[in-house]
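Let us work through a complete example step by step.
Step 1: write down the sequence.
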Amino acid sequence: MYDLHPHLDAEVEPGSNILFTGPPLSGKRALCLDLLANGTEQGEGSIIVTTKDSGDRMLEAFAQRTSYESRPVAVVDCVTKQQGDDVPERDRVKYASSPVDMTGIGIQLSEFLQAFHQDRNITHNRVMLHSLTTLLMYSDLQTVFRFLHVFTGRVQSVDGLGLYCIDSTAHDEQALNTLKQLFDGVVEVGEDGEPVVRLAEA
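Step 2: predict the structure and record it as tokens.
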């Protein structure tokens, strides 16, 4: 099981994918990073797929929560190359050319999962994708749905835990409901108050 305490009052099965919805600045990203850092402290792998901030910025935010120097923490950065920066791959950071490059994103994720799960025998890995809203700005719903279908399946196949952020105010109800079909649970993060956890019945 993946224990989400103390940040969320929940435990979820390995292979689960959870969608975090809420308005901008409601703390979705911070909550997901907290959950990732928590896993890192328990010896789990953490992979951040970022379509919004550079990999370095995400690692800085992560470092504020827990030290990751010798730990299995990695980032798939879909931002830096799009901005025209020529950057070498590092052990911890791999680059997709842009948020549109869903094939590239999938390949880099698979490489990190293989490195952690198969090569280093880390059985529990948490994967965070921030943010689905950015993907939907660049591609249509059908394309993003297909991509997420593969992405969530990949997380499931290694008994991982997937955490995905989406801005609830940027999309219509139909789009949100379409995407929700792919997930095992939804966490609604409001501007105030506690996050509401809705997990699918096992």
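Step 3: interpret the result. The helical segments are 28-41, 55-63, 102-119, 132-138, 141-157, 173-180.
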